[in-house]
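Step 1: inspect the first sequence and its tokens.
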Amino acid sequence: MTVTQDLFPSLDANAPPLRRLLRLRPDVLVAADGDDVELTHPWGRQRVHALGAATVARLALLSEQDTDADQLTEGPDAGRLLRLLERFPFLVTTVLADRDGDALATAVPIARSATLPADAPPDVPAHTPVVLSRFAYLRRLPEQNTGACVVESPLASYRVTLHQPSAGAFVAALTSLRTVAQAAAVAGLPVAAGEALAGLLAGTGFLETAAGADQATDPALWDFHDLLFHSRSRAGRHDYPSGGIFAHPDQPQLPAVPGAGPREDGPGVDLPVPDWAQVVYRDPSFSEVLEGRRSVRSYGDQPVTVDQLGELLYRAARVRRVIPGDPESPTAYDIVDRPYPAGGSTGELEVYLSVADCEGLEPGVYRYDAAAHRLQPRHWSGAADEAAFRELLTAAWRATNCTVEPQVLITVTSRFGRLSWKYSQIAYALTLKHVGVLYQTLYLVATAMGLGPCGLGSGDTDAAARALGLDWTSESSVGEFLIGSRPDGPAAVGRGFADVVAESREAVN
């Protein structure tokens, strides 16, 4: 007995053809009103008039049980019902099942753009070479769906649930170009079942033909992870609950302001609080600062000072106030007010300093306590911690094209749980938006102060976790920013608007 025969005994070579079953998505509500019907679903609500009582009844039945696709072509109202399903294909699931109704695979529409014909896609002939889309991925479902997995893709408007291991093996076999018959043999599926499953996968956007490795539809400039992240963190390309849905009420909230962390024994460094009147008197105008903002990759002879760092952090990143949530509400949480805007005011971003050269501070790693306006040293517990600190500084130096030895590296981290406790699907996208506004705030304040700011485009997650003493799955680096003294010369502020408006208009005209 071969391994595949041992793994997949449920479908033998003599199994009859698979049934194609149709059903409305489980979250579609069918409300009958005489000859009319109202359909309520995740993408809205439609009222369809003058269907006829028989069609309304059959449609209601489709919301309760699977129906063989062939049966929908029978009866005097068959044409009307099929036209209705073709009008709303994004509400119709397609199931491949054996004669007893045991499912092999289910295609569920996850976007309103789903266009699979309601009467199911045709089989792909056994001799046809096909390959899995490079954007497709396979993952297991939670434990309550033991044995099942799903294949998804940011390019597909369907999610296909694979109910049997043989179906998952068939998908895995198509990671290289094979005929349908060859993939079915690898998976231990009858050829007819392979043809039907390939038809379902092709019709829902997961397979490419040999001629295609379909370059016409492959977005060549996208990496897999970028396209997936984009499609899943915005509405329109998936049906997962999204936004502030408070999906984790059983998990404790993270504190609004974190307490002392690892390797923080000993006193902190209280930073001076800037004087409002002096700051307002000294600062250039907003327009001068905005037009003068530049990334600075060279420093002055004297390093930045601890007083300057203190003012920068106070003006850009401190906690201004914490507004307690209602303890009686299961969805209430403490609001964190900071100088930069943030979705939900969750205050998940934290700031760490890797100090190489700063007047008034010893070299090393510090956590900025944004509520107390204090630096908490994170002492090295051994040579490995110090080596990770050096790795961070070296990575920052490389990120500037090896043009400047860092004076102070600001590492921005995210305590992800502060966001994901409330927000689903969009939590990581939100934290990156927050990093962007913090970057701009640091740029503007540093420019106004006459410092040398430079946001970096990348960083080392693993080195940061080791250097800062963090569990990267709970709190991880999401941004890096260099601060140093500005070289001697005129103040870096704008003295007028710089643009290409006139030149662009002349080119058009």
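Step 2: inspect the second sequence and its tokens, then contrast the two.
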Amino acid sequence: MTTNPLSRPAPGIITVTPRSEARIKTQSIRLLSSGLDGGLLTTKAPLVSLRQSSDFYSCYDVSIHMYLPDHARNLRLEQDISNAGTIDIENGPIEVREINIAYDNPAEHPELYAYSLWALNFRYCVEGRELPAIRVRYIIGDPETTHGTVTSVEKT
């Protein structure tokens, strides 16, 4: 078997690294708007802001705005945020913490439906090693429709 030393994993493929223990301390989720035309949205990937907490050492505040189909149900932030891995982005590989937002989507063609804008805010505190970025993605049950984004700590 011949391997190409220049080949890299496909975008979005994560190479698992050792876990970095972290715990969610606070969280809130709000519906901001519904009935938005999905065809007019430029992205359905989560819009993420990550910054180090000014109140607590080794804690981070995450703010996520996301467009989800109006009929999505059981929206939740998965509690295990200790999984880590390396992912290739435009600037090269970066190690990330996995943040998963799960919801039930019974529709066969979500692109045909209206969308709702949700805001999810949470704080997590690191008990293991620090990671330079997080990868936030939707877990919908169908990898073809899963969307995500990689975000690093906001510099002030």
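Step 3: confirm your contrast with the notes below.
Confidence is low (pLDDT under 50) at residues 1-10. Residues 19-152 form one domain.
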